Amino acid sequence: MKRVAILISGGGSNMMALVRAMEGDFPARPALVLSNDETAGGLQKAAALGIATAVVDHRPYGKDRAAFEAAIQQQLQSAEIDIVCLAGFMRILTDGFTRQWEGRMLNIHPSLLPEFKGLHTHERAIAAGVPTHGCTVHLVTAALDDGPILGQARVDVAADDTPETLAQKVLVQEHRLYPAVLRRFAEGDMRPVFLA
């Protein structure tokens, strides 16, 4: 049974989708929810479910990202984590940290990578006039939003979609895709998951 840490910065909707999935015959369990923000709503949700939580506030570390990440690493090691799932964790991680978790850290991104890496994906998808948009789960590497793709889910872009309506459609698919990918990944199966 793999032990999973979920890293969040906000309300934790993807975290909750993962936690709800990790029951019964699922090959992993949530062992830690960690945030860089003590006010992140997802922390309370996790604690209410009896999941261990931790906060490593990035602000006291200033520009010393290595020290910030060392504090995160200490929490992960203490919890004997096997797999790290980034779920709305709004800090860019250094090469040194990602190398430590190479092949064991997943991220979900709100676009069909390699399209629209970075932020404001829904606005950019609408501006580009693409007919389909979606989300991607990938292995984390040192390059931003660039690791091997483990799964994608697509949505149609309607003529009247706004960034907000498109974001909501994509979020529904994120909550389906991330648990499906994590299940397969925790079983040692690297074949990508594609959802319509």
TrEMBL record:
<comment type="pathway">
    <text>Purine metabolism; IMP biosynthesis via de novo pathway; N(2)-formyl-N(1)-(5-phospho-D-ribosyl)glycinamide from N(1)-(5-phospho-D-ribosyl)glycinamide (10-formyl THF route): step 1/1.</text>
</comment>
<dbReference type="GO" id="GO:0006189">
    <property type="term" value="P:'de novo' IMP biosynthetic process"/>
</dbReference>
<feature type="domain" description="Formyl transferase N-terminal">
    <location>
        <begin position="2"/>
        <end position="182"/>
    </location>
</feature>
<feature type="binding site">
    <location>
        <position position="107"/>
    </location>
    <ligand>
        <name>(6R)-10-formyltetrahydrofolate</name>
    </ligand>
</feature>
<feature type="site" description="Raises pKa of active site His">
    <location>
        <position position="145"/>
    </location>
</feature>
<feature type="binding site">
    <location>
        <begin position="90"/>
        <end position="93"/>
    </location>
    <ligand>
        <name>(6R)-10-formyltetrahydrofolate</name>
    </ligand>
</feature>
<feature type="active site" description="Proton donor">
    <location>
        <position position="109"/>
    </location>
</feature>
<dbReference type="InterPro" id="IPR036477">
    <property type="entry name" value="Formyl_transf_N_sf"/>
</dbReference>
<protein>
    <recommendedName>
        <fullName>Phosphoribosylglycinamide formyltransferase</fullName>
        <ecNumber>2.1.2.2</ecNumber>
    </recommendedName>
</protein>
<dbReference type="GO" id="GO:0004644">
    <property type="term" value="F:phosphoribosylglycinamide formyltransferase activity"/>
</dbReference>
<feature type="binding site">
    <location>
        <position position="65"/>
    </location>
    <ligand>
        <name>(6R)-10-formyltetrahydrofolate</name>
    </ligand>
</feature>
<comment type="function">
    <text>Catalyzes the transfer of a formyl group from 10-formyltetrahydrofolate to 5-phospho-ribosyl-glycinamide (GAR), producing 5-phospho-ribosyl-N-formylglycinamide (FGAR) and tetrahydrofolate.</text>
</comment>
<keyword id="KW-0808">Transferase</keyword>
<dbReference type="Pfam" id="PF00551">
    <property type="entry name" value="Formyl_trans_N"/>
</dbReference>
<dbReference type="InterPro" id="IPR002376">
    <property type="entry name" value="Formyl_transf_N"/>
</dbReference>
<dbReference type="InterPro" id="IPR004607">
    <property type="entry name" value="GART"/>
</dbReference>
<feature type="binding site">
    <location>
        <begin position="12"/>
        <end position="14"/>
    </location>
    <ligand>
        <name>N(1)-(5-phospho-beta-D-ribosyl)glycinamide</name>
    </ligand>
</feature>
<keyword id="KW-0658">Purine biosynthesis</keyword>
<comment type="similarity">
    <text>Belongs to the GART family.</text>
</comment>
<dbReference type="InterPro" id="IPR001555">
    <property type="entry name" value="GART_AS"/>
</dbReference>
<dbReference type="GO" id="GO:0005829">
    <property type="term" value="C:cytosol"/>
</dbReference>
